[in-house]
Amino acid sequence: MAKYKINLDDLSCSCPDFMEGRSGFERDDPRRLCKHLIAAIDDEFDFFDFYTAHEIHHVSPGRGFPIAYRTRKRFSDENVVTLHIPVSKDRPWVNVFVEQDKFGFNVKERRWAYHDRSAGDDPVEKWITEMWTKVHGKIE
Is the whole-model pTM more than 0.70? Predict the structure, then answer.
């Protein structure tokens, strides 16, 4: 099996697929990723956030792909909640999925986007804060 040089900072790979075609795409274009880059991203990070990859056209050139840590928990009301916590602690918005619904929660402002959920003594909010702290440390 061939070993290729992978650089996650440049999102580059020495494989023929990347060198002969994918290298022409910008860093913020998903078509740039060969299977080796995808595998390296998957190894380096808990989860490549394909659910928010559609937001890539909003990403400034050179900023890269939306990558996130993913975790799940079942709450007493039987709903499974999935969190996508951004790798960068400079991005305070956590994507929250409850079954087929998507919500946003800002950990720094402790609020839901568009008032999607009621504020207050919400066990989901507590869990989001706990998971953010586990990944990034203290919320600043």
Answer: no
Angle at the Cα of 34 from the Cα atoms of 88 and 62, rounded to 5 degrees = 40
Say whether both 71 and 38 belong to one domain: no
Task: Classify residue 55: in a domain, yes or no.
Answer: no
| Region label for 73, one of left (φ > 0), alpha (ψ between -120 and 50) or beta (otherwise) | beta
Whole-angstrom distance, CA of residue 90 vs CA of residue 75: 28
Q: Write the pLDDT tens digit of every residue in 60-83.
A: 444 555 566 778 888 876 678 888
Tokens 């709450």, residue located? 75
Answer for the pair 73, 89: CB distance below 8 angstroms, yes or no.
no
For 129, list phi and psi in degrees, rounded to 5: -60, -45
Domains of the chain: total: 2
Closest CA to 30 of 15, 52, 3, 2: 52
53 domain-assigned: no
